[in-house]
Design a protein that fits this description.
The complex is a heterodimer. By secondary structure, chain A is an alpha/beta fold. In chain A, 45% of the residues lie in helices and 14% in strands. Chain B has 17 helices and 14 strands. In chain B, helix 8 links the parallel strand 6 and strand 7. Classes of the chains: A alpha/beta, B alpha/beta. At the A-B interface, helix 1, helix 2, strand 3, helix 3 and helix 4 of A face strand 1, helix 2, strand 3, helix 3 and helix 4 of B. Strand 3 of chain A pairs antiparallel with strand 1 of chain B. Chain B: Belongs to the NifD/NifK/NifE/NifN family.
Chain lengths: 465, 455
């Protein structure tokens, strides 16, 4: 079966301008070109500022998330993440000002104020996040002023999120908009003081499929309480207690580093990068967190937990490793921290990495990625489907780890797929998550359907390569 | 979920809570995918394009490719002309489609980019085509966007070669699944009439896995076919909201008689569709179609006591909801709440008329509503069944009502885009789903002593 590609085979990058955004580990001497705007006319997998802000704030469970713009932005982001709540489910409800033509012509501020009044009166939420979109930003609606007036009127936190989509095609800018909104929310009121506690905050943890609860269980066993996560299963009241923590853990660096730096500046809280994807990363993170407290008993409890959990999951991991050894994987996810964690996990399953890419990686992150990858692995920034297709076929990839838009591409090429995006519904963190991830990789890589797809149809040819 | 319902009866005054519609561009994108060798292009921020692709992908479980002008702050200040020109150049150079279908977004509409002029100034390779439609997100809904793109296909491409018309029928199928379009083609072909259907996403979004990965699958209406639609005798516009505008323009531009029909969902609407083809072309009803209709009648009789007199809430897109309302009345059910998110007075008029003719009183009908309102109605007075999109599942769970998934989008089930709901076969499928929803519920709720083998 010959390989087929919709693109000229000769080019390494399908678009000349994209040449510098693709590298081969061990062979490239220049820094990868990344984090600039996507090319006009490319079928990019990237999104917008609003999208970035929305995914960061969405898990705040008891807040109203009111989107100021035409209806689409609200519809597409309705209950978009697999973030779970232990209390209110209000965050799953979609609120839109549903801007119409006359709002665009005469300005949407009045309507926004009326919508805020209505949701406050109906739901009495502890806070309302008001998101700007392309149009409300473009026509110059002053959402900051509207929110300020509404806050005074209702004596409730009405927080503007300056997330007009056109500001940038890079979600990271949206993460910043969300971060600013969070900081605005947690800033203590005039004269308010915050007592420090022994608790910690968990930044960049969104409780997908209950991942925050998992980490919480581990930490509780060691003797550490989570104060609040940003923003998985968080409430407005809990977020306001954030300054009382003695340490901030940062998991998703893309969305939360800046917040951590800010919290350190404002409240003197130190921060530490952690990662709960994969058993080794989880163990390492638990050790470092315990070490921060400088408490021998705590460190012993951490070691006991790690030893016990590692032993518990080993048989399952071994079982999957036996099946997956030597299989080839491709990774294309949003952020670099996630990509690096997945590289480690797949290696732990005895697999080879043929391709790694991210939507929002930074140059230094790509460098550290390049260092851990074996020679010949393709590294790609802001890939488009045509490029992904080309490398998936060229590198004979068996399974792809990506997001919703990559799933169908992989399937069309007859390649297995695991969803590792923010709209995942099953937790993949911690020791349990490592087993689930291994199982998901095994299920899709070793499914008999690929066999069927590759064997010829009656009287015809095969369906896939 | 319960605690998300505000206390007491609340009037909804402004904005939308849990919308029952989405914005125009996604409809235009879906329609564009029904042209063979077409790359849809979203003239706006990257996020719109990403959201639309993602949403369509979640419903169809298939690849949706579309390009974006990737607006940035600069484009928003100085206009998007250079972005669009660069896009057109890049798309032909890199992705090499036969045709680019440009749609706007609320941002480029607000800026006021003059798309036809920008297209005129763009480098378009010999033999390639660029068409456009205006899809401001703050007007109408995704159905409006679909309708606008269909209209643009006519405006840009349809041509009449002369006074004499060919013995062929145009069908504008509306915002339905590829499985539905495939079924419409099967029915018209069985009637022995040559068909030009546009758009046609069958073979694009329900394409089989082949050994050759194709960016532009075999399906979709060819440009030549859309051109030829100007030479057809008649256009059947299925669903007023999605299809009438294009049919009207075809009549005006090329003198093709337009016949507005409902979406052929349910017995009566399918009869009307088949009779329209039969009457116009003098076609004979082939035996296979006659048998299928007979099976529907037989099945209705076999199952009528499962759903007779049950109350239903129907919500979703206007053309779907209108046809479905007619069908459940045919089945002997009571459409208690009928709601669409798409604006349009004629929706309320059409549905109210159907209810009046059936002697059904006390129902609520609303265009441009949202699911918050639907939930409020249901809390006031419950129904036995909900028929609509995946977005209804929260209400269904909170109020413990069975939900038959129908329309767009369905994000939590698979295979549905390939299985038609139109035509007589579609009737059978809908009867099965509706009937089984009640039987499943009966089994679930039965006490041990009432749990029966035969129902």
């Amino acid at each position: 079966m010959e390989e087929s590609c919709t693109l000229p085979r000769a080019a390494t990058a399908c678009i000349a301008e994209r040449q510098d955004s693709i590298q081969t580990a061990g062979k490239s001497r220049t820094r990868i070109h990344c984090a600039d705007d996507s090319l006009a006319g490319s079928v990019s997998q990237r999104a917008c500022v609003f999208c970035g802000a929305r995914v960061v704030l969405n898990p705040v469970t008891d807040a109203v998330h009111l989107i100021h713009g035409p209806v689409g932005c609200a519809t597409y982001t309705m209950d978009i993440r697999g973030s779970l709540s232990s209390g209110s489910e209000l965050f799953r409800t979609s609120f839109s000002t549903d801007m119409k033509e006359k709002d665009v012509i005469f300005g949407g501020e009045k309507k926004l104020a009326a919508c805020i009044d209505e949701v406050v009166e109906k739901y009495h939420p502890p806070a309302v996040f008001v998101y700007a979109t392309c149009v409300s930003g473009m026509i110059g609606d002053d959402i900051v002023a509207v929110c300020k007036a509404a806050s005074a009127r209702h004596n409730t936190d009405i927080i503007p999120v300056e997330s007009s989509g056109f500001i940038s095609g890079n979600k990271v800018v949206g993460y910043r908009a969300a971060a600013e909104a969070l900081l605005r929310l947690i800033r203590p009121k005039e004269g308010g003081t915050i007592e420090k506690t022994q608790k910690i905050n968990f930044l960049g943890e969104y409780n997908l499929g209950g991942e925050k609860w998992l980490a919480e269980r581990y930490l509780r066993e060691i003797g550490i309480e989570i104060n609040v996560a940003f923003t998985g299963d968080s409430t407005v009241a809990a977020l306001k207690r954030a300054p009382s923590a003695c340490l901030n853990l940062v998991q998703c660096t893309g969305s939360m580093h800046w917040v951590a730096q800010n919290l350190e500046r404002t409240f003197g809280t130190p921060y530490m990068d952690v990662n709960f994807f994969g058993p080794e990363n989880t163990a390492e993170s638990l050790r470092r967190i315990a070490a921060f407290y400088d408490d021998t008993a705590m460190m012993e409890r951490a070691e006991a937990l790690i030893a016990r959990e590692m032993a518990r999951i080993r048989p399952a991991i071994e079982k999957y490793r036996a099946r997956l050894r030597g299989k080839r994987a491709a990774i294309y996810v949003g952020g670099a921290y996630k990509a690096i964690a997945i590289i480690r996990q797949l290696r732990g399953l005895g697999m080879e990495i043929a391709l790694t890419g991210t939507q929002t990686g930074k140059a230094d992150e790509y460098e550290s990625m390049s260092r851990i990858l074996s020679e010949g692995t393709i590294i790609i920034d802001d890939a488009n489907p045509a490029e992904l297709e080309k490398f998936l076929l060229e590198k004979h990839v068996d399974v792809m780890i990506g997001g919703v838009k990559e799933r169908v591409l992989a399937y069309k090429l007859g390649i297995g797929f695991v969803d590792h995006n923010h709209d995942r519904k099953d937790g993949l963190a911690g020791f349990e998550g490592a087993v689930r991830f291994a199982r998901e990789v095994y299920v899709t890589t070793c499914s008999p359907v690929w066999e069927r797809a590759r064997s010829p149809a009656p009287g015809g040819e095969a369906h896939a390569r | 979920m319960l605690e998300c319902v505000p206390e007491g009866k609340t009037e909804h005054t402004t904005g939308k809570i849990n919308p029952a519609k989405t914005c125009q561009p996604i409809g235009a994108m879906y329609a564009s995918l029904g042209i063979h060798g077409c790359l849809p292009h979203s003239h706006g921020s990257q996020g719109c394009c990403a959201y639309h692709r993602m949403h369509l992908t979640r419903h169809f479980r298939d690849q949706v490719l579309a390009a974006s002008s990737s607006f940035t702050e600069g484009a928003s200040v100085f206009g998007g002309a250079s972005n669009l020109k660069t896009s057109i150049k890049n798309i032909f150079k890199i992705y090499n489609p036969d045709i680019i279908a440009v749609h706007t977004t609320c941002l480029s509409e607000t800026i006021g980019d003059d798309i036809p002029n920008i297209i005129k100034q763009s480098e378009i390779p010999e033999g390639k085509i660029v068409i456009h439609t205006n899809t401001p997100s703050y007007v109408g809904s995704h159905i409006t966007g679909f309708s606008n793109m269909c209209k643009s296909m006519v405006a840009y491409l349809a041509e009449a070669q002369g006074e004499t018309k060919k013995e062929q029928v145009n069908v504008i199928p509306g915002f339905v699944n590829p499985g539905d379009m495939r079924e419409i083609r099967r029915i018209v072909t069985a009637l022995g009439v040559k068909l030009v259907m546009f758009p046609d996403t069958s073979g694009v979004l329900d394409a089989p896995l082949t050994s050759k990965y194709q960016m532009y699958p075999e399906g979709g209406t060819t440009i030549a076919e859309i051109r030829d639609s100007g030479n057809s005798e008649v256009t059947l516009a299925l669903g007023a909201f999605a299809s009438n505008a294009a049919a009207d323009l075809l009549q005006e531009k090329c003198g093709v008689t337009g016949i507005p029909l409902k979406l052929p969902i349910g017995l009566k609407a399918t009869d009307d569709f088949i009779m329209a083809v039969k009457d116009w072309f003098g076609a004979d009803i082939p035996k296979e179609i006659a048998i299928e209709r007979g099976q529907v009648i037989d099945t209705l009789i076999d199952t009528h006591f499962h759903y007779q007199g049950k109350t239903v809430a129907i919500f979703g897109d206007p053309d779907h909801v209108i046809a479905m309302t007619e069908f459940v009345i045919t089945m002997g059910m009571v459409p208690k709440y009928v709601l669409t998110g798409t604006p349009g007075k004629e929706f309320e008029a059409t549905v109210t008329k159907m209810l009046d003719e059936a002697g059904i009183t006390g129902s609520r009908v609303k265009a441009e509503g949202d699911l918050f309102e639907l939930h409020e109605w249901i809390r006031e007075e419950k129904v036995d069944l909900m028929i609509g999109t995946t977005y209804g599942k929260y209400i269904a769970r909170t109020e413990d009502i069975p939900l038959v998934r129908f329309g767009f989008p369905i994000l939590d089930r698979a295979v549905h885009p390939l299985m038609p709901v139109v035509g007589y076969r579609g009737c059978l499928r809908l009867i099965e789903q509706i009937s089984n929803a009640f039987l499943e519920r009966r089994d679930r709720d039965a006490l041990d002593e009432d749990f029966e083998l035969v129902l």
